[in-house]
């Protein structure tokens, strides 16, 4: 047994333990076995307590120190934001759908922020009061459903989106901590119905559902620069106004008009009436939502004779001075082909176009042949889907078996049904020097050369066609298309509307398709009116043809739009001192 | 020695902690300033977009047409007859050319070689002498030519 050597302070502890002050002072020199054991036990307990206390303080200071380091060095140092709100708010800020503008930078659609009210059911203090209050602010709310939602385990419930400032204030004034707001984007279309068939619309989460909004959805979602479309809102307004006036004048059911840049293929205006409200697309009828210009497939009748004549001249199967017998109807594959009205017995190609002779056109098409005709129309992209940058495009319809009968009927516009936009696009090729460039809704840079496109007819044939088309307006069926101040060329078309296996003789589409200024075409314009009433206006003497219905709208549009498009008025080719006359 | 080194490292450590703390605070302040600036920019952009929208809304062609019809009689839409190339505007005949009214004394007139209008009209105007604008321009050209030549 080793001798015990007390340390200098042990007597204090020992004295504490025994509560003997005398011993404390004496230096603990009184020793006995019992006292020594007692002393050792007491000392061990004291040491253990000291360690425990030290450990406690150490832990406490470690925690405090760690928290200080965390706050000072690592933490954000800001008030924490509730997770759900932070997530939603960040989402709204990060994603901003791009703007759509017209060719002059005028806004066509953009996103604005609007508040949405939502609830966090777990935080709602006064459930009944909240439901009553919300029901008063939003009478259209389904109270039963709202109660079920607020009683559920959900941690997020939409109350109402796109709040007005008044509604927002009213919800705020309920003073309910479980109700909150977040900012959401909302797509606006400042021109409303005027551009609805082009721009389209978005769903409530601003994802494109129709039109350009749907076609460019991914690009718009990237939120980069605005997309500049090729349309000109001012001209769009003129076209829409004149088309609406014509539809009303002739008690028609619908109509469409397309104005293209003849050379670049840019769509300057595209109108389909009736149109729809892009803010409430679901409540609009099918007729309103149908984009007739790009999605409707129509047989447009005699405007196809332009392609027939061009293909015949290009294929060199007819001389311009050749006289063709049109005195009697002809029969092709069981079809009897006759003219609307009988004029001369023999006509040259110019007069076939001017008089719009079905017999003459059929004869020329038969000379060209079925294969060459099909190939020609294929080159003009009249037999393939449109590549226009819009959701609503159609695939043309044409006969599966392209026999002689089809060749003859297609020559004057029955048998191939395509969208008015595609037909206008093909017509541009006839007058622009012979090069096809696909129609586009995206503005083309002016400082860059034209896309090469592909040549369909020679420049010479195109010049001949321009001359013939001006002749149609000067002395033919398109007289009412003549515009004051601008030389115009074009072709009328009147087609009965298909019904069942045949055609309804009492329902028709009246069309005028032309270009201006025809000596150096800059723009192509198609006006089509569906089912005009021949008795609507006395002055038409019972006619509701393209020449009587669509041609006047054409000239009114040209007279109003051409100065706006920067076209200088032209002198009359036959009287240089005067402007081209109406 | 050990105690000195402890003191040294402790000082370094405390110094580092203080520096780090100050750095963090200053970074936070800068971050706040940056966020505020970004917020202002976004707010301004948002305002601009809203104004653009309002401007577009106010400039709807249909609305402008109606306003023009209601309040701007005689300012209808341009038609072919109201537009002409600049070249087609005829030059005014000499006697209808505008004149410039100048206060030029006779001596200067003589020096410039100007031909001033004399007579009743000139005396009525007083010191203001009406001068044919083309004459004035040619005189000025001549004068600058003479100056150039003398130098």
The outline of chain B comes out as elongated
- The order of strands across the largest sheet of chain B is 1-2
Q: How many separate domains make up the residues of chain A?
A: 3
Q: Unreliable segments of chain B (pLDDT under 50, ≥5 consecutive)?
A: 122-127
Share of helix among residues of chain A? Answer: 25-40%
Number of helices of chain B: 5
Content of β-strand of chain A = 15-25%
> In whole angstroms, how far apart are the ends of chain B?
92 Å
- Which residues of chain A sit in consecutive blocks of at least 5 with pLDDT less than 50? 24-28, 83-93
Explained architecture:
The complex is a heterodimer of chains A (582) and B (151). Chain A has 582 residues and is an alpha+beta fold. Chain A has helices at 10-18, 21-26, 33-74, 83-94, 127-137, 143-151, 165-173, 196-199, 211-215, 217-221, 233-249, 286-289, 305-314, 349-355, 358-368, 370-379, 404-411, 420-431, 459-475, 546-564; strands at 100-101, 107-119, 157-160, 179-188, 227-228, 254-261, 267-273, 324-325, 330-332, 335-337, 346-347, 435-436, 454-455, 489-499, 502-516, 523-530, 571-572, 575-579. The termini of chain A are far apart. Chain B has 151 residues and is mostly helical. Chain B contains 5 helices and 2 strands; from the N terminus they run ααβααβα. A two-stranded antiparallel sheet of chain B has the order 1-2. Chain B is elongated, with a radius of gyration of 39 Å. Classes of the chains: A alpha+beta (582), B mainly alpha (151). The A-B interface holds A 72-73, 77, 93, 99, 106-107, 110, 112-113, 188, 190-191, 194, 233-234, 236-238, 241, 483-486, 559-560, 562-564, 568-569, 579-580 and B 17, 20-21, 24, 28, 42, 46, 49-50, 52-53, 56-57, 59-62, 65, 77-85.
